[in-house]
Design brief:
26% strand; 4-stranded antiparallel β-sheet; single chain; 25% helix; globular; binds 2-oxoglutaric acid
């Protein structure tokens, strides 16, 4: 078990609240290596597309299925993340997808309330034995559109999701009722802070109306036993090879541009609602 993995107390908080924020899980230097790599990574930018919100503001996203040897893959495969996920989910996990979500100043769009399992149910995963971790690469604040969650909403089970404007979101009426009963938590993060949240935790984020960029790296995991029951653009069980916790510092700047297959591993999961760049 990695010495940087979530503590017993953090795991208990996750089960109670549906999320837990691990402050400085990665050092400022590690977060900065990932951010600088993201800035100069040509293939990451070639694979990007825009996801619009209801006002037309756009978040730039790159999504990929399998983690490689680049620093983004080393993050997703790091012992501290995978060991934590295995504790949260309760068994061996595999990588389901990762994404770089970039909200540019004055441009980055909002995300409607949704549960990730609202999507993943439709992808053939029978159980919500899935979770996401989100690491801030830039400071993420209320001002530039950090994540917001409804505390305890993972306990309501899956809510119906439907197309709303250009996004797929949770049934609005249900969310309105839940907002009256549950606390809305604005999760501000500094680079290196990692937010873990359950696949049924309702979350949203506002548009970036500020002059400050908001880039974040998200990695999602599925229980090994929860292999999807039909083929989908996100993968079925694939053995995840963990790397030691010092892998990012040892690798330094290591972009996906060195990985000829990255563009094949990247894809647009919401083609029907997003516009390709
Ligand atoms: O980047 C964000 O603000 C939200 C991301 C999100 O909710 C998602 O990718 O499911």
């Amino acid at each position: 078990m990695s010495k940087f993995a979530l503590t017993g107390e953090q795991i208990a908080a996750y089960h109670r609240d549906g999320f837990v924020l691990a402050r400085a899980m990665f050092s400022a230097e590690e977060a900065s290596i990932i951010l600088r790599t993201a800035e100069l990574d040509d293939r990451m930018h070639q694979a990007a597309y825009f996801r619009s919100d209801s006002t037309g503001s756009k978040t730039r996203m790159t999504v990929w299925n399998h983690p490689g040897d680049d620093v983004f893959g080393l993050f997703a495969r790091s012992e501290r993340i995978v060991d934590s996920m295995e504790e949260l989910i309760g068994e061996e996990v595999y990588h389901y997808n990762s994404k770089l979500n970039a909200k540019e100043p004055f441009e980055g769009g909002a995300w409607e309330w949704h549960q990730d399992y609202g999507y993943w149910y439709a992808s053939g995963c029978l159980f919500p034995a899935m979770a996401t971790c989100m690491m801030a690469l830039d400071p993420c604040t209320a001002e530039n559109g950090c994540l917001e969650v409804l505390k305890g909403s993972h306990l309501v089970g899956r809510i119906d999701h439907g197309v709303s404007g250009k996004q797929i979101s949770a049934d609005q009426k249900r969310v309105e009722f839940l907002e009256k009963r549950l606390e809305r938590v604005v999760v501000e993060q500094q680079p290196g802070d990692v937010l873990f949240f359950h696949a049924n935790t309702l979350h949203t984020s506002s548009a970036n109306g500020s002059a400050k960029r908001r880039w974040a790296l998200l990695s999602c995991y599925n229980a090994a036993s929860n292999d999807p029951v039909f083929a989908h653009h996100h993968p079925g069980y694939t053995k995840l090879h963990k790397v030691p916790d010092d892998a990012i510092l040892k690798a330094g700047i290591k972009p996906t541009s060195e990985d000829k297959e990255f563009l094949q591993r990247a894809h647009n999961p919401i083609t029907e609602v997003a516009e390709k760049v």
